[in-house]
Amino acid sequence: MSEPPVDPTTTEAWARLAALADGFVPDLRSWFADDPGRVDRLTFTAGDLHVDLSKNLLGEQVLDALLALGEEVGLAARRDAMFAGEHINVTEDRAVLHTALRRPAGEPLEVDGQDVDADVHEVLRRVYDFADRVRSGAWTGVTGQRIRTVVNIGIGGSDLGPVMAYEALAPYRQDGLQCRFISNIDPTDAAQKLAGLDPATTLFIVSSKTFGTLETLTNARLCKAWLLDGLRAAGAIGDDDADAVARHFVAVSTALDKVAAFGIDPANAFGFWDWVGGRYSVDSAIGTSLVVAIGPERFAELLAGMHAIDEHVRTADPAANVPALMGLLNVWYVNFLGAQTHAVLPYAQLLHRFPAYLQQLTMESNGKGVRWDGTPVTTETGEVFWGEPGTNGQHAFFQLLHQGTLLVPADFIAVADPAYPLTDGDTDVHGLFLANFFAQTKALAFGKTADEVRAEGTAEAIVPARVFEGNRPTTSIMAPALTPSVLGQLIALYEHITFTQGVVWGIDSFDQWGVELGKQLAQQVAPAVAGDAEALAEQDPSTSALISYYLGHRDR
Ligand code: F6P
User: Fold this and answer.
1) Residues 246 and 289 occupy one common structural domain
2) pLDDT < 70 stretches in the chain
């Protein structure tokens, strides 16, 4: 049984932070002008990541108090308990061992009687072997043709990680082999993703940790029917479906019995374990579609990148431990300066799904109102994570970041070497792109005073509208290039930031009970939607009226 969480609000560090926040007046202009060492002191390295915290709203005292808070809530001990496989997922009584998925082979780790090292590397070997066969054309469909499209069917953690990484690592994909991702139970998703595909050259990966998710199983059935109908119409198969399903369907799950019940040969199933949370599973067999796309070698680099950050988290001094610092900084913003949202702004088009990926990681992990011992949280928890790639965001929501009244800490992410180094005459377009990154973080930090606006000859009446207050906090994260390793490092960085915040708040960051009620009610409401009058009568008046509207307007 886990120790009850320390109430952070009772710590001495919390009192110090509250005192520092009282009447806190940030002044990045002066802090930079008066302290030539600020940037060096607040710039850190984790793996290949260069992380500049200097444009954040903190000085030495806040930093000291945040580090003290980490100590007082027992951050290091909880981290060690996680790495050791203790059951820190208290409400589900499970270990939390996504970090074990990326450990090099041969480092023994036994948890709850399981040889984790052997199991992880055995599944990896099978996934790699499968991916190699698809990539080489050795794995064929039922007509003997090689596979051209791999369709991952999954949702949440069984979709967001693979699709995000597939997009991010586009330059590493094998030519002539594409992946598509079906997640939504809205049949439009399957209809659009299947459009133009040839069943004979399409292979489906049904990815579901529980193999009980309504969306995924519905889409899997839909795809199975599409496959068999298509093959039959082409005269490729007779009445016997089994061979076609075996050659065109594989599965990834922790529930291999349910995979078999669905009709997928267990020989074509890749397992993982209950100690891998869905939103922490891109580095498990859930990443199979990605392995097919980029190949085992590149996937191994992604794992190595994640492991490098795990090692950093495990061994770096707290004062230089980047994920811990970033997590503690988020606590400062949420609990002391009143921030409710956090922007993630990749200046890398390939990372366009990274904010969506982080939404599940952070909000499903820390959007909780009770602590791991069942008692209510003692302070605000969670942040709404959101974002879009720059520079698109600049022409959409940056107005609010620059001049709005809400405090929105923002992470800017960029790489030095672009995947596609295009030039426009003599202009290095990627350089121009990054000039925007640098300019935006500068504008947000230092703003523009009324005198500076006046000096530009602005009419007095509109001076106030053109003033930028500055002191809008940003973290700048840079890396040499968006390699598989760097992507792995970014993912692990945010996993550990999320962990840090969860520990401070005393939250079990690894359960997700908050998604259950909606699932239960969908099952209860479904008969009413299907026209069952009795079930309709049991609904509340608003729900009943909405269903009636639907029933009255469909098939028009
Ligand atoms: O409903 C939330 C959730 O349980 C996520 O935590 C998970 O990633 C997703 O559904 C999909 O679950 P599964 O992989 O079991 O289909």
Assistant:
1) yes
2) 1, 556
What is the secondary structure of 282-299 as a DSSP string? Answer: TTSGGGHHHHHHH-HHHH
Q: Which of 107, 395, 460, 553 is catalytic?
A: 395
Question: If you take atom 3 of ligand 1, which residue's CA is the nearest one?
Answer: 156
Regarding the beta carbon of 512 and ligand 1, being less than 6 Å apart is answered: yes
- The model's pLDDT over 27-67, given as tens digits with 9 standing for 90+, comes to 999 999 999 999 999 999 999 999 999 999 999 999 999 99
Q: Is the CB of 216 under 6 A from ligand 1?
A: yes
Residues 45 and 27 in one domain: yes
The answer to whether 368 is a known catalytic residue is no
Task: Name the residue range of residue 524's domain.
Answer: 515-553
Give 444 Cα–ligand 1 centroid separation in angstroms: 37
Catalytic residue, candidates 167, 215, 364, 383: 364
Position 1 scores a pLDDT of 54
Pair (61, 164) in one structural domain: no
364 is catalytic: yes
pLDDT of residue 44: 98
Q: Which residue has the tokens 């043709």?
A: 145
Q: Does 368 share its domain with 415? A: yes
Position 2 in a domain: no
Q: How many domains does the chain have?
A: 3
Indicate which residue of 110, 442, 519, 538 is catalytic. Answer: 519
Distance CA 139, CA 246 (A): 11
**Does residue 209 line the site of ligand 1, with CB under 6 A?**
yes
Residue partners of 169: CB distance under 8 A and separation at least 6: 290, 293, 294, 298, 302, 350, 482, 484, 487
Tell me the whole-structure pTM to 2 decimals.
0.97
Q: Considering only CA atoms, which residue is closest to atom 8 of ligand 1?
A: 157
Active site residue 248: no
**Which atom of ligand 1 is nearest the CA belonging to 160?**
8
DSSP-derived secondary structure for 331-375: HIIIIIS---EEEEEEESGGGTTHHHHHHIIIIIHH--SB-TTSS
Largest CA distance in the chain: 82
112 SS3 class: coil
In a domain, 85, yes or no: no
Residue 422: per-residue pLDDT: 84
- Give the Å distance between the CA of 93 and the centre of ligand 1: 18
Digit-coded pLDDT (tens) for 287-342: 999 999 999 999 999 999 999 999 999 999 999 999 999 999 999 999 999 999 99
Q: Is 157 in the pocket of ligand 1 (CB under 6 A)?
A: yes
84 within some domain: no
Within a domain: 307: no
